[in-house]
Every structure is written in C-alpha cells, then in structure tokens.
Design goal:
- It is a single chain.
- Helices cover about 35% and strands about 15% of the residues.
- The protein has about 325 residues and is an alpha/beta fold.
- The protein has a 7-stranded parallel β-sheet with strand order 8-7-6-9-10-11-12, sandwiched between helices. The protein has a 5-stranded parallel β-sheet with strand order 2-1-3-4-5.
- Helix 1 packs parallel to helix 12, helix 5 packs across helix 7 and helix 8 runs parallel beside helix 9.
- The radius of gyration is 21 Å and the shape is elongated.
- It binds 2-keto-D-gluconic acid.
- The site of 2-keto-D-gluconic acid has 11 residues, from loops.
Length: about 325
C-alpha cells in the first residue's frame, strides 16, 4: 500500500514532480496556504509526511500529531515553525544548494537593471519615445562597491559574479568568515554608508526582521541601490517606500516583499525601482531540482534512510 502524504501549495511544484509524487504516495492536496490553514485536519492526524513550500505554522503542525517529516520546497524555512516541529519531533528538510546560482543570477540582474535603467529603457523604446530624444544617462557599475548582507552559500555566488563585473565586494554577517577574501563589516549601517549597492541575501524570520531600516537606507544614500532577493521581512517596507519617494535612497531591485503577492502601489509607480514576482529560483531547471530533492527526502524517510537535507537537530 502506498503511504499517505499531505501536500500544501501544489501549484508551485513542477508537473513532473507532482506526477512522481502521485505515483509513489496517496497525496492529500490542500491547495494554497490559506486553504490549508482553514482545512479540517482531523482525518489526517496520523499522516506522517507533509510536502510544502516553506509553509507550516505552529497551528497547522499542532493538529498533526502523527507527523514525522516536513519536506519543504525552497531553501528558506522562516515560514515553518521549527520550535514546534522540534517539540513534536518532526524532521524538517529544505532544498539548499540547487538554487544558489539562479538566485545569484537574479541578484546581479536586478543590480544591473536598476543601475542601467534596463526596464525604463525597454519602456522608452516600446512607448515610442526614442525618436523624440535620447533617454537619460544611467550610472556606471564597474569599479563600484557592493555590500552583501548575508554571505552564505548564495551570497558567495553573488560575490563571485560581482567580481566579474569589477565590483569591490564587502559583507556583513553576524560573524566574520575566515575563508573569503572580502572585507567584513561588523556594522551594517557602516557598510551601507561605504557601498553603492546593498544586496540582501540573509535568512528571513524574527532575527532579521526590519534589519534594513530607515537608518541603513539613509546610509546607503541618494545614489545607493538596494537589491533584495531574500525575504521582504528583512526590510522595513514603509521606510523603503519613503526613502525612495524622498530620494534619500537612489533606487532598488526587489524580488521579495513584506506581504506577497501584495506590492505597495507607490513602488509600482516608481520608474527607478525594478520589480520581480519572487522569481529567484523560478527556472524550469532549478524548480525541477528542488522538486526532486523534496521527493528524495520523502523517499529516504519512508525507506528509513537518513534524510538528505535536514535543517533541525534530530
Ligand atoms: C521559492 C524561496 O520561490 O527557496 C526559497 O526560500 O524563496 C524560493 O526559492 C519558494 O520557496 C518556493 O516555495
């Protein structure tokens, strides 16, 4: 008999992965997180595994006493109640490494697009404005300074790409690393003051909530550009809107927002801001690899083998 699993947010998973999942398991699909949060979980109290996309709050886990595995699609697990999972002895797995390069590519794409007015230029051509005159001059990228907030696995890929664009890289983490050639800033505000670009790729969650606040944005300054490919929660979004509106911050390239999929109207109207709908890992190839890792963790669990990418301690 096939084991039963629960699945939240099936629409995010590639079709081939969903097919394989249905071949191996009896899958109870809940639709998106909102539907899952409202569902009656009583009939599933003894189901052992949940496949999800970075979502499993405390109230949801508490209703599933038989659960032993949360296999999550995505590297970030700030939307999974890890303390509660630990208490219930539920192992949580994520999909690290396989998305590093795509997220780093998008960070650089946003940096370049915001600096060189790429989207603005595209609009300029499409709106037929070119015959009446040249577009404004944009800003030079090479030789400038990039500060990375969160020099982890993806941060390192961003740094490597930035070097190819002749950017001078420095970083801010909780602790300095002894295995990188980049300058460490113990203070985020001071790093922001020194750099032209600030790229955010640290973890989300309470520890980094609104870390990039008004002071940091002001330090980045009227010619500075903020790029965020991590979590919207890391930035004080109201302060960001104000800084961009008043010109105390020069521009931004944003893939993530505080209340996705809601994007503040003010940002939508700003020509010096480049927006993406949380596309960091959204390529056919990477989503396939992420889905495969979700399947591999489920398979390992049901075969009694060690999990491949467990994030909590047992
Ligand atoms: C995904 C992400 O869009 O990996 C993450 O943490 O934010 C993205 O890769 C998302 O998690 C898919 O559920």
């Amino acid at each position: 008999m096939k084991p039963e699993i629960l699945l939240v947010n099936n629409a995010m998973f590639p079709e081939t992965i969903l097919q394989a999942m249905h071949e191996a398991y009896v899958v109870h699909e809940f639709g998106g997180p909102k539907a899952a949060a409202e569902a009656d979980l009583q009939p599933f109290a003894q189901v052992q595994a949940l496949a999800t996309t970075g979502w499993a709050p405390e109230s949801f886990l508490k209703q599933l006493p038989g659960l032993r595995l949360v296999s999550s699609f995505g590297v970030g697990y700030d939307g999974i109640a890890i303390d509660q999972a630990n208490e219930q002895r539920v192992a949580v797995t994520n999909t690290p490494e396989v998305l590093n390069e795509d997220v780093a590519d998008l960070a650089l794409a946003l940096l370049l697009a915001a600096s060189r007015g790429l989207v603005e230029g595209d609009r300029y051509v499409r709106e037929g404005r070119w015959p009446s005159g040249w577009m404004r001059l944009t800003r030079n990228v090479s030789g400038r300074k990039l500060g990375i907030l969160g020099l982890g696995r993806i941060g390192l890929e961003i740094a490597r790409r930035a070097e190819a664009f002749r950017l001078e890289v420095s970083y801010h983490n909780r602790n300095a690393r002894d295995d990188v050639p980049y300058r460490y800033h113990p203070s985020l505000v001071e790093m922001a003051r020194e750099v032209d670009y600030l790229v955010i790729i640290c973890v989300g969650g309470p520890a980094t909530q609104n870390l990039v606040n008004r002071e940091v944005l002001e330090a980045l300054g009227p010619e500075g550009i903020l790029v965020n490919v991590s979590r919207g929660s890391v930035v004080d979004e109201d302060a960001l809107v104000q800084a961009l509106e008043s010109g105390t911050l020069g521009g931004a390239g944003l893939d993530v927002f505080a209340r996705e999929p809601h994007v503040p109207e003010e940002l939508i109207r700003m020509p010096h801001v480049v927006l993406q709908p949380h596309q960091g890992s959204a390529t056919v190839e990477t989503r396939q690899r992420m889905g495969q890792l979700v399947l591999d963790n489920l398979e390992a669990y049901f075969a009694g083998r060690p999990l491949l990418t467990q994030v909590n301690p047992f």
